[in-house]
Amino acid sequence: MPNEITISGQVPSPSKQKSKSILKHKERESIAATMQAHTYPLSNGRTVMDVIGIQKALKTDPAGAILFISNVNPRDVFKCEGATMVHTSAVVKEISKRSQQPRSMSQIAHYKESNDYQRRLLEARGLNNEQ
Length: 131
Hints:
Blueprint: H1 25-37, E1 39-41, E2 47-50, H2 51-58, H3 62-71, E3 77-80, E4 83-87, H4 88-99, H5 105-125
Helix pairs in contact: 1-2, 1-5, 2-3, 4-5
């Protein structure tokens, strides 16, 4: 089918950036590695994240990721080869929402790191994920 949207490879690694985060280097690297491995470009130019990437980005457990997916706009859910994924724009929106709520400093720093990494991924690809 010519109009079928498919996963088209891996997202490129964004440039490393000095961080003034309160997170330890190991945690920042873990966020970056997980987000890199679990974010996928689509043939339409958008990107999606799988459940593992969502868990890391939102600092939640599998049940929390499933709850997020069940509450997100159905247009932002993408199914491919039996896997459920969500457009990264929806995940970034949730990160932003959560970072505005009362949270510990380490949780807010985690959300900021996740958000910054997604922004750098998009810049590395030259994408506009808000299509």
